[in-house]
Design a protein that fits this description.
alpha/beta, five-stranded parallel β-sheet, five-stranded mixed β-sheet, 21 helices, globular
Amino acid sequence: MINQMTLKEKIALCEGKNFWETKDFPAYGIPSMFMCDGPHGLRKQESRGDHVGVHDSRPATCFPSAVTTACSWDQELLGQIGAAIAAEAADQGVGVFLGPGVNIKRNPLCGRNFEYFSEDPYLAGKLAASFIKNAQKKGIGTCVKHFACNNQEYRRLNSDSILDERTLREIYLTPFEIAVREGKPKTVMCAYNKINGTYCSDHKELLTGILREEWGFDGLVMTDWSAMHDRVAGFRAGCDLNMPGGSNYMAREVLDAVARGELDEADIDRSAARVIKMVREAAEALKNKVPCDYDAHNELARIAAEQSAVLLKNEDHILPLKKEQKIAIVGKMAKDIRYQGAGSSHINPTKLVQPIEVLGEGVRVEEADVAVVLTGLPPEYEGEGFDRDHMMMPAEEVKLIEEVAAKNPNTVVVLFCGAPVETPWADKVKAILYMGLPGQAGAEALKNLLYGVANPSGKLAETWPLKYSDCPSASYYPQRDGQYREGIYVGYRYYDKANVDVRWKFGYGLSYTEFAYADPVLDGETVSVTVTNTGSYAGAEIVQLYVAPPQDGIHRPLRELKRFAKVHLQPGESKTVRFELDERCFAVWDDGWKVPSGRYTILVGGQPDQLLVAGTIDKVGQTVAIPSWQPGSWYEKPQGAPSLEQWEQMLGRKYQPHVPQKGQFTMNDALADMKDHSLVMRVMYWNVRRKITRGLQPGTAVYRMLAESSVTNPLRSMQIFSGLRPSFFHGLLAMANGRFFHGLKLLLKRD
């Protein structure tokens, strides 16, 4: 088939037909395929395909976001959610849905953190792998994203993630590696940003060397929407599908490159073949219509919210509530629950119940036995396209908590938010229940949790600092160039080694019952421990295994999560949990995975501060040299933030910031870069911003996403999204660079 197609047709096949569909070629028996967003549910836009109409989609089950389900630490549960979303995709004629997202939570302010699982690469990768495997069992495809190092929303389309090879491998690529090797997704989405100066869409080492040749990925790589940089380089790199379609972006340049011998037609053939394979497998999967039980999926969404909730505090066992108690229900979210994040993942739920409907109006705070405050972050505080400005809750929400606690000593706070927040009020209340973004059945789940029908069993998948300034990257996040100065010391890896107090640790979470650990045994590289439910409620416990590496060689964290399991126990019931370790549990990246010689301590337990020593393993491994810059450096004894100079020494090169200058602007620069240097671009800046936000309420999450991203997107991205002729943008660029009449000529040109 590939041999029958013309070069022009093959290039066209490797770009979408429109915003959501691939191109069909009936003459060759190639159908089109529909894709849609889907990390925690489907967002299928049928009448309007764009980011402006993010709320205009077919109803689908809104499952809890990844920030919530990650706290379940339950691979089986994630698999059930993946399978349910795939069933709805099949029902709605969708061949591939875009998820899961496995980017690391490097900094708590990243606006899109709610779509990602964890600060820990192993936990994120394992949850994603189960989601993918189970979603794809009946032929529907998933798309793991955003590959790779997409850890900020600020300038996400032209930012440069600058980091050393060890940090890249151990932290940021590991969740993708696990997801790809174990989950075998049909597609991978390349990120917008650059990595060490090379755009992900152009990155041959990333997309071919690592992803395909090293990890064995045999599927298709698609761009994030308008993430294509150089389509010629993209074909060489193994970036197969340019999305969205409709712009014919760089098709002529690709043809010319083949004609000049600068691009091998075989590279295009490979990409076209991958597109054909993907759409044909989707067509086969969608042949037979199978009934889809949306009511059952709503129940699964409720169970997921219950299994993922984290009980952060429960003084005097104030929870669970008793039916005879008089309860006051306080807070705006009682009537308008925050159940999902903002942006391209926004789901139009099949049903939605508010907490007030299931909990009742309650009584006045002066009169109540217990006051329950429903609070958190409003949608405009976190969302796609913009990062949070700080880690604080709105002042009025903090004031509400403090006023209620002052009136009623028995105050319970329920938090709805997609990322950690500062909680200076935590010592003033009796209990704190973290629901995250619990999906469409969050209200029913909340009632069951508060009244003990369900027992909280979640544990935090990310650290909650006391204050934002405690984060190692706080002083330099975000910037146009992502300076990954902290290296491997992300999340608990930093807080542990720097001995920094936090509000709640990674892996922390309480229960209405109690669990006891006994008989930790290390037999070779098999670890076992017995867990007993010693309380009076049925419950689930998350058993965590950490490896504590030697500290006298190359710098390493004090401990790292390497295994975990969730066990369900009746009162008085015991189970023995076993883990098998492998060489990767002990390895570091040093131009390949190597196990440094030394003594490794194996720790197991249910709380990060109550881990038991199962034993030690003496490894006679490979020699990993201590870098010359390490002795006495921040990386040996991290505290606060590393300096630019220390980072450059670790990086092995000087950092050269990108400074846009008139006369040197390129298609990778944005209106925001050029508006202060060009009257034409200043007019364009305000016109684009005004047009893209027309009809939207200022200050809302969608307004913020579109207002900020529209003027910080590079010109090439605007060309892809708009479908306008290339000469229009090249004309604007020439004008911005001071070549007014040449630019005017290009503007008037017909391509």
